[in-house]
Design goal:
The chain is an alpha/beta fold and 341 residues long. The protein is built from 13 helices and twelve strands. A six-stranded parallel beta sheet has the order 2-1-3-4-5-11, sandwiched between helices. Strands 7-6-8-9 form a four-stranded parallel beta sheet, with helices on both faces. The longest helix has 16 residues, at 292-307. Residues 4-58 form the HTH lacI-type domain.
């Protein structure tokens, strides 16, 4: 059976081909009853106008944007991004909205990307990797772009915010380790300008009562390795290290084993984000599952609702789960000052 054409729609609706085109493009004024006949005819025939015609009819791009301002190497190694993007696509698919993804190497590149989206390429944007005081909030408001912020942003904002409490699992991890006798517990963070890194670091300091064993990394494997080495070189070294993501934790695990530390007997290690490999390491890595797929889907749904005119608000999601595994299963070792294991 031949696919329906614009001519078939015109014939069924009793109008010209030009009128069908104008009904979708909006270039000329078409009466409401005539437009309704055109749309009903198209639906009955199963005719779908081109993307450009639908976009003109609704004055929308039928796309939303995501700008990622990270080194591509870090993006490639961090399991959060593929799952989060898959969740976004899942939330957008039913509405037949495309995801426009751009990696920006500088602030000026970010600004150009957002301006381009505001000038018709996207109907709204998702803002991730929030900074504690983020210039993008005011910038996007000035551009008039609808946006959804992912993270517990505490500053004033005109946009919806999808947030979770990452501090809870940090406290639970410390409680678990203390129950095993650990007192010297270190934390290798992500960049502390990020909302989520700061929230976890703040919870750590509140629980531990000191910043002595706090080290700032960049989420990359190299920083996880190097900072683990720095911590293990201390005269009074930690007996446990908590990392801001599993990429750094896995690198730390590799470094520790290369120096003949037994995990967890000599050193307990835990990550965050629960990479798909973490449960299959030897020993299996304790981590916090953050369900980035669900975060992505909910974020997409909130953004689509806001584009359709919903009132922006804060959406709290509970999708973090502490997964205790072998890397934190042993009692804390007895260590004499001077670095003995």
């Amino acid at each position: 059976m031949a696919k329906p054409t614009i001519g078939d729609v015109a014939r069924v609706a009793g109008v010209t081909r030009a009128t069908v085109s104008h009904a979708y493009s909006g270039k000329r004024s078409i009466s409401a009853p005539t437009k309704a006949r055109v749309f009903e005819a198209a639906e009955s025939l199963g005719w779908v106008p081109s993307h450009s015609a639908r976009a003109l009819a609704t004055r929308r791009a039928n796309a939303v944007g995501l700008v990622i301002a990270r080194d591509p190497g870090v993006i490639a190694s961090d399991s959060f991004f593929p799952a989060f993007i898959a969740g976004l696509e899942s939330g957008l698919a039913d509405a037949e909205v495309a995801l426009l993804l751009q990696v920006a190497a500088s602030r000026s590149a970010e600004e150009r990307a957002y301006r381009s989206m505001a000038h018709g390429k996207a109907d709204g944007v998702i803002v991730i990797d929030l900074h504690r005081s983020d210039w993008r909030v005011a910038f996007l408001a000035e551009l008039g772009l609808t946006a959804v912020l992912l993270g517990a942003y505490e500053q004033e904002s005109p946009f919806s915010c999808v947030r979770s409490d990452d501090a809870v699992q940090m406290r639970d991890l410390i409680t678990h380790l203390r129950g095993l006798g650990h007192e010297r517990i270190a934390h290798v963070t992500g960049p502390l300008g990020y909302v989520h890194s700061h929230a976890r670091a703040r919870a750590y300091v509140e629980e531990i009562g000191s910043e002595e064993l706090l080290r700032e990394g960049d989420f990359g494997a190299a920083s996880g390795r190097d900072l683990t080495g720095e911590l293990l070189d201390l005269t009074d070294r930690p007996t446990a290290v908590l990392y801001a993501n599993d990429t750094m934790a896995i690198a730390g695990l590799s470094l520790a084993r290369s120096r003949d530390f037994r995990v967890p007997d000599d050193l307990a290690l835990a990550g965050f984000d629960d990479d798909h490999l973490s449960a299959h390491l030897s020993p299996a890595l304790t981590s916090v599952a953050t369900d980035p797929f669900r975060r992505g889907r909910i974020t997409a749904e909130v953004l689509l609702a806001d584009i359709d005119g919903a009132t922006p608000g804060s959406v709290e999601i509970d999708c973090n789960e502490l997964r205790l595994r072998a890397s934190t299963a042993a009692p804390a070792p007895s260590i004499a000052q001077g670095g003995d294991r």
